[in-house]
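I would love for you to help me understand the pair of lines that follows before we discuss the fold together.
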Amino acid sequence: MKDVSFVDRLFVGLAMASFVVATEERPDCPKLCVCEIRPWFSPSSVYMEAQTVDCNDLGLFSVPERLPLGTQVLLLQTNNVVKIDKPLDYLANITEIDLSQNNLSSISDVHLGNLPQLMSLHLEENWIRELPDRSLAEVANLQELYMNHNLIAYISPMAFQGLSNLVRLHLNSNKLEAIKREWFDPMRNLEILMIGENPILSIDDMNFQPLSNLRSLVLTRMNLSQLPDDALTGLDNLESISFYDNIFPEVPHSALKNAKNLKFLDLNKNPISRIQRGDFVDMLHLKELGINSMPELVSIDSFALNNLPELTKIEATNNPKLSYIHPNAFYKLPRLETLMLNGNALSALHRITVESLPNLREVSMHSNPIRCDCVVRWMNMNKTNLRFMEPDSLFCVEPPEYEGQHVRQVHFREMMEICLPLISPESMPGQIKVKNGSSVSLHCRAYAEPEPDIYWITPSGTRVQPNTVSEKFYMHPEGTFDIYDITEKEAGLYTCVAHNLVGADLKSVSVEVNGYFPQPANGSLNVIIETVETNSILISWKANRGTLAPNIKWYTGSDPSQPTTAFTTRVPSDIQVYNLTHLSPATLYKVCVDVGSIHYNHDTKCVNVTTKGLELAAKDTEKWDTAVITVFGNASPRLQLTLEEATGMHSPFFTKLWVSGKGLPSGVNVKATVINVSDNAF
């Protein structure tokens, strides 16, 4: 083991010799600098070992008088150089110069000389204010120019004349207010342009037309709110574009149509509220889409991503209001493999959504407020080969009996096959303040099985159905409610109702116009007993407009030997008649109607009424349509009204009722019906 072969000794000796040659002090190496061989990659990613002179961070006020003739890479970063007086054209092999983080204030102070081999020039983080004509024409073979984080406010139309070989140009974080097409005429071979974080006032049509070879365009943090339809015309080879952290209210789909070879699209951190059908039309080569960290994104609507045959990955993460993905949001995406949806406000992901993606391999749904009911039942049925990323962070938030449990540990048989709608609280705020003459969109989305229908109730009590045409209102099929040309007449409380055959949910938002919100008219709440039967009581009430959804409570307590039974239900604000059925004969009931306002004021009226005795039952026949609630002891604090029969009543008008019981005896059946007699819907 002590013997070492001659070959081994030779290799060790050569290695040590090469190290000494590479690191030993050279007589022509500037004082304090380091001269050595280092790895280097060309702009086209070709690897080579380059003679490097490293004079970084030495406090130098000028370039060293004399540099080694064989220098290929010169590093002068983080010094105090204000001017380059003497050309460096004696460095025949120089390929890269880094002058970033110095005190250069004018490009005319940078006299590099004729450097035919120079490929990369770094001038980041200096104090350069403008680029005059032919600023760097003497380095005609330059391929990479980095001028980020300067103070450039003006670029001459002929500034880049002579740089026909440039392939990468970085102008991020300057003071530019406009982009001129003339800049790019000399740079027909440019492949990468980064011009983000400039206070650009607008982008014009044909701005980038000369850049037919451009592959990557970065337009980040420029306060862009719109993009002209022909802004990207001429970019026939564009593969990647970033609009990160702008202020687009919607996807600039008309402009994107011209980028037909786009593969990577970054829309992250824009205040886009909806991803809609047609947003990504004709993007046949798109591979990855980023719609992360969008503060206003509420929903991905039906067929929003349609016919994207090469799309493999969607990232829609960390969107605090994203609470709804339509079951048919993704259509004809045959190659989609990865769906990232973590960190949103999603209560569910519909089974149909997953089944429409034949090549889907992995889904990220963790860190969402999952509601473990029928909509997510498919996750635990072992009928999918999907891999859920970070399953240990996938928890149930609702219903209360499953709160805190891992979603995939709740057996699918414990979840109902049908369930009532739930409007996400993140989908719309409780209050909106707008100016006179403006427009606003209110977004309402709900998951349920069967899929719910949605309508809106205006402050005047008008019921607005999907696709209803009005001068002031329009409701989209997905649930978005648009209000146009707002005046004080449109101020008030707007209520969204989502309902299916199981039940319904409702949520209200107050719209304040120029500080005005209508106050409830003076007047008390009136509760009227319309009819009394053996097993039913029909009540009606009159409340002021603009009030919140009423709560109705009824209970018995006449017999001290029997436990008190109490029920509470909530109905939409446009409903003013309610039928309690399947009650006990000859029993005293106390019925209360409670109507609140956005100012937290409540008006409550109660009436005592006794149902008819059995001797009158044979004379009368109950004529009201009914919905059935079955209460099983104290097992569930919230019960649903389910439709038993609705003769003569269209399902869109049948409404959800949250019903809660206190001290309920087991096996009690209670019927309650909302009778739609309101004529103010249309």
Summary: Helices lie at 6-23, 253-256, 351-355.
